[in-house]
Design a protein that fits this description.
Number of domains: 3
CATH class of the largest domain: Alpha Beta
CATH architecture of the largest domain: Roll
Order of helices and strands: HEHHEEEEEHHEEEEEEEEEEEEEEEEHE
InterPro entries: Cell_wall_metabolism_enzyme (IPR050570), Dup_hybrid_motif (IPR011055), M23ase_b-sheet_dom (IPR016047)
Helix content: 10-25%
Structural class: alpha+beta
Keywords: Hydrolase, Metal-binding, Metalloprotease, Protease, Zinc
Shape: globular
Distance between the termini: 130 Å
Protein name: M23 family metallopeptidase
Number of helices: 6
Mean pLDDT: 85
CATH topology of the largest domain: Nuclear Transport Factor 2, Chain: A
Low-confidence stretches: 27-33, 38-47
Pfam families: Peptidase_M23
GO molecular function: metal ion binding; metalloendopeptidase activity
Largest sheet: 10 strands, antiparallel
Strand content: 25-35%
Length: 449
């Protein structure tokens, strides 16, 4: 009896619980259910979907334009038109478009073998851009005008160069050429270095074994490729007799541009020693010489300098052409008159300098002729003579004053500019003094050796 009562009570409890649960679900539809706890151990696989109200923008994807680049160069005997005609993909209208546009800034008569060009065409072989490189320092571009005309225009581009100011040094063994070759510098630097001391040293006769030289020079690079030398900032030559020649480059006001010693004296004098800086002396100034052809002993009041036929001969000083023509045994000869009563004579020439004639004005180191063997001569050489009044002088023994001497504020400015170079030479721990980037603007002219 007691057991049946217990079972009845339990059954009633379950029935009442079920009824209460049903009633609570019906009456609690507006009540918020507790959130379902997140399961941390299960990673989220799918990103949260965006609400249906958000409309994503569809961006159309267009294929990138396909360009064709055509590279070419100028060959011997080429015109630009001929060079372009070798490229089959460049149509005649495009070729004319390029030539017409470039002619506004490029003189086609100055084209050189090795000049390079690039032409960029679109998918329909229409011109996009053309670049013409007339050497490392001249780049010309043809492309559409940025304005509304949409026409093709040309321009000269600015050039980006790297300038390294570096130190060099060497020792004489046989010749200045060989000494510079040993330190892996080319002949252009040899000539420029010798030219600095042209009024003080005759590099035909004076250099001796173990003479030493050094300098600081600018070297220009484009895309890591060496393209040439700039200014020689410092130059020094030490001779075995103890003579020391040195000069610092200085460009100042009033057209001052040259190399000066620390006393402010310009290294260049009114006369250079030799009109052939690298000729070989075959006969010196003497009052008794046996003539190589006639055998007669007589004075030779000049210097004979052997050099290959066609070697340029330069004026020893500023002057005026007094004579240019054939003069007996001297063959083709040029005579220059200079201030102070000086005259210089240049004989056995093969030909004269461009535009040279009687009455012409010439500048020091201007080319006035070329080595030859005209007249009475045993081979290509220059007969060079120097005369003051009525007396011939030994060109290699004559002494001349500096062309200019710095003073006052100009001298102070010069000394200030030499400080960094002097400090570098005294405390030098590496070969490079400086490395700079230089942008050469289209209107600039840059002289590189």
């Amino acid at each position: 009896m007691r057991l049946s009562r217990i079972v009845s009570v339990i059954a009633c409890v379950f029935v009442v619980g079920f009824i209460i649960n049903v009633l609570s679900q019906q009456s609690g539809t507006d009540k918020e259910l507790p959130p379902t706890p997140a399961i941390a151990s299960v990673p989220e696989i799918y990103p949260e979907t965006a609400p249906l109200s958000v409309v994503q923008e569809i961006i159309p994807v267009f294929p990138e334009p396909q360009y064709v680049e055509i590279n070419g160069s100028i060959k011997n005997g080429d015109t630009f038109s001929k060079a372009l005609s070798r490229q089959e993909q460049i149509s005649s209208p495009v070729k004319q478009q390029i030539i017409q546009s470039l002619s506004a800034c490029l003189d086609f008569r100055q084209l050189k073998p090795g000049d390079e060009y690039k032409v960029l065409l679109d998918e329909e072989n229409n011109l996009v851009r053309c670049t013409y490189e007339a050497g490392p320092l001249e780049t010309y571009v043809v492309e559409k005008d940025a304005g509304e005309t949409d026409a093709f225009v040309s321009r000269k581009e600015a050039i980006s160069l790297e300038v390294k100011t570096v130190h060099f040094a060497g020792e004489m063994q046989s010749s200045l050429f060989e000494a510079f070759k040993e330190i892996k510098e080319n002949s252009k630097l040899v000539y420029a270095f010798a030219d600095i001391f042209a009024s003080q040293i005759d590099f035909n006769t004076e250099p001796r074994q173990y003479d030493r030289f050094e300098g600081v020079v600018e070297k220009y690079y484009k895309n890591d490729e060496f393209i040439g030398y700039g200014n020689i900032i410092y130059a020094k030559y030490e001779q075995q007799d103890g003579s020391v020649h040195e000069g610092f480059y200085y460009r100042g006001q009033d057209g001052i541009d040259g190399h000066f010693n620390l006393d402010g004296e310009e290294l260049g004098t009114f006369f250079i020693k030799s009109p052939l800086p690298m000729g070989r002396v075959t006969s010196r100034f003497t009052w008794r010489r046996k003539h190589p052809i006639s055998g007669v002993v007589k004075p030779h009041l000049g210097i004979d300098l052997a050099a290959p036929s066609g070697t340029p001969v330069i004026a020893a000083s500023d002057g005026k052409v007094e004579f240019a023509g054939v003069n007996g045994g001297y063959g083709k000869q040029v005579i220059l008159s200079h201030s102070g009563g000086y005259r210089t004579y240049y004989g056995h020439l093969s030909r004269y300098g461009k535009g040279l004639k009687k009455g012409s004005r010439v500048k020091q180191k201007q080319v006035i002729g070329y080595v030859g063997s005209t007249g009475i001569s045993t081979g290509p050489h220059l007969d060079y003579r120097l005369k003051l009044g009525n007396q011939f002088l030994d060109p290699f023994a004559a002494k001349f004053k500096p062309r200019s001497i710095l003073s006052g504020e100009t001298f102070a400015s010069f000394l200030k500019e030499t400080e960094s170079t002097s400090l570098f030479l005294v405390n030098r721990e590496q070969n490079i003094l400086s490395v700079e980037q230089k942008i050469v603007q289209p209107e600039e002219t840059l002289s590189i050796l």
